[in-house]
Structure of Holliday junction branch migration complex subunit RuvB:
Amino acid sequence: MNREEHPGHTDGGAERLVGATADGEDTAVEAALRPKDLAEFVGQSKVREQLDLVLRAARARGGTADHVLLSGAPGLGKTTLSMIIAAEMGAPIRITSGPAIQHAGDLAAILSSLTEGEVLFLDEIHRMSRPAEEMLYMAMEDFRVDVIVGKGPGATAIPLELPPFTLVGATTRAGLLPPPLRDRFGFTAHMEFYEPAELEQVIHRSARLLDVEIDAEGAAEIAGRSRGTPRIANRLLRRVRDYAQVRADGLITREIAGQALAVYEVDDRGLDRLDRGVLDALLRLFGGGPVGLSTLAVAVGEERETVEEVAEPFLVREGLLARTPRGRIATPAAWEHMGLTPPRQPPASAPGGPGQPGLFGS
């Protein structure tokens, strides 16, 4: 999640050890850990196979690859795949983002400076301004843009021919893309969360590159707490490495990994302080719900957007929390995970209970 979207965000993904967005340190380390070609890329087997066919065919034709749309949660490898596309095609890559393109002129300046075959990576493409989006339609389809010169009745459109290029768009919210834009991509792929075994491969590869000693059980322990996300796995690996160097002999075992992640408040399912705070409030204060999102956010001392966008998606995916028309409710797995016993039956007349959905409503 980006701060531009939620200015009140106080415990964002970039600040959490298990957050999937990248901060400055992550960006620098990821550059060194990123695989350079599809053969090195771990996971996403279907996407890799399909993308390999697209790129091989383009190289055989001696042309540029079709435009590519990558969707999925942060930290799954969309930026890495865009760089691999450029490397596989032997082309340079230009990187920008949707929020940086707020006017059609911004996009025109970028497009007009592209060289033939260049890859343009547009991150968070769903946040691009509407005028720039409409200009992109023509650029993707006809490799041409119309530059408007002048204002009012005297304004004229000057067509500008563009060299063939490949646009790689990345989005965490594919549903926000308008159909005319989505339909202009020749290849679309959705990035799935990783299985623990795949994350273990990522961790072992990163450990070799970082010159970190880790055994199979240590890698498995970190993978199990990485929320299905390679970026989080690499971040946890670096923090466990620090602990192993300072408080142990440098070798990461299951025991050392568990001790290190306990220090950083990441439990055995990957929940951190914020996640457990949400569950604790839901269970102890509201008897498991239903409770409205705003009320729940106040109870944990966070902004509504922080709870909804940062904590909830993982809790729902883990089957610990459910969203209902009456509010958020805890599942039996949440009670078990937090070591609490659910009440025999919810008090029907309690404020915010089923009889009074308005008080704790969303």
Remarks:
- The longest strand covers residues 144-149.
- The radius of gyration is 24 Å.
